[in-house]
Design goal:
single chain, alpha/beta, six-stranded mixed beta sheet, 8 helices, about 15% strand, binds N-[2-(1H-imidazol-4-yl)ethyl]acetamide, binds zinc ion
């Protein structure tokens, strides 16, 4: 049966009023910053080289556009890698209807550490690639696929490297590493219609309605999106502050404790429709987004965003390290 996730999407539109309300004001709800100075650094070192190799391995399959051979092969690779690290992997495979009438063979991949525990933390990223490089400066290339080194592979690379190191970090809670599919199939500018948000994030919308485990709950979630750009700066994202402000505080404090505060300025960015929205609004899991967004008009997430130049050569291991070490610190602090 073909499932349609589109009808549930009105919820994604909710905070438009909020956006207007918050635009010009500094956040009145800045997360706690106090205890970061005295907190201890986790001794486990996140390997940026290993994460970089995971970016390259994913991109070597080609653009992982849903229904393509590269997508199928990379999906198999991810499942194998997580299993090889001793995690329990569940695949959620469903046919989902996209805005253009295509049926996407969606694969959400869930890798679990200590699956028997009910006290859990969720870390996620999307693994699919956008079929259209519709932000490229060369209009003739707008219908080519995006390689997604940053937009896709970077977040998953951090998940894979965390999987490799979880037994050393040894958090006292269960951890689910989730690779969501079909995030980036949103309507390109030349296609009329839609509400501007419901055609994105199909895999996470589906998972939020039907988690891989019935009655699933996590203490909180952290979404990684485009975490490998040179000089990236991760400001507070709007939905994250709205739904999960204490989690924002925890993660930004951990970044500063780990020594990567310059990547995580404690300032407002803006609202981004992303996989964390259905997690908050449908699954009711407080989930934040780590994404390089600054709400500067005319400036997007990175110069390579949705272009044919989103390639491994434009990934910065230093940025992967900053985000990866922050996640290591967060998980290590969960005792
Ligand atoms: C939109 O551009 C609507 N949302 C940003 C989410 C995204 C796209 N993440 C990666 N690609
Ligand atoms: Zn994208």
């Amino acid at each position: 049966m073909i499932k349609t996730v589109l009808k549930s999407c009105a919820v994604l539109l909710l905070p438009i009023g909020l956006l207007a309300a918050c635009k010009d004001k500094p956040s009145t709800a800045a997360p706690e910053q106090a205890e970061s100075v005295s907190a201890r650094q986790c001794p486990v070192v996140f390997s940026a080289d290993s994460a970089m190799a995971y970016v390259e391995a994913q991109c070597a399959f080609g653009p992982r556009v849903p229904n393509s051979e590269a997508h199928r092969k990379c999906g198999d690779y991810l499942v194998n890698e997580f299993r090889r690290r001793g995690l329990t992997v569940v695949e959620q495979k469903d046919d989902l209807a996209a805005w253009d009438g295509n049926v996407l063979h969606n694969r959400n991949i869930i890798a679990s550490y200590k699956p028997e525990l009910s006290d859990r933390i969720l870390v996620c990223a999307h693994w699919d690639c956008r079929p259209w490089a519709d932000a490229d400066k060369d209009e003739r290339r707008h219908r080519e696929p995006v390689m997604g080194a940053n937009d896709g592979a970077s977040g998953v690379a951090v998940l894979l490297e965390l999987a490799r190191q979880l037994s050393q970090i040894a958090p006292k809670v269960g951890v689910d590493l989730i690779c969501f599919d079909s995030e980036d199939y949103g309507r390109p500018y030349w296609a009329e219609g839609g509400d501007g948000s419901s055609d994105w994030c199909l895999g996470s919308q589906h998972w939020a309605q039907q988690p891989h485990v019935e009655g699933y709950m996590a203490r909180y979630g952290i979404l990684l999106d485009m975490v490998g750009g040179e000089g990236a700066r991760f400001h507070y994202e709007g939905y994250s502050l709205h739904y999960a402000q204490p989690v924002v505080g925890k993660v930004w404090n951990a970044a500063h404790t780990a020594g990567f505060g310059e990547y995580f300025p404690m300032r407002d960015g803006g609202y981004v429709t992303d996989d964390h929205v259905p997690l908050n609004e449908v699954a009711q899991i407080p989930c934040i987004d780590i994404i390089p967004f600054n709400n500067v008009p005319g400036q997007s997430f990175s110069p390579y965003w949705h272009t044919v130049n989103d390639t491994p050569g434009n990934i910065s291991p230093a940025t992967l390290r900053a985000v990866g070490q922050t996640l290591v610190q967060v998980l290590w602090e969960e005792q």
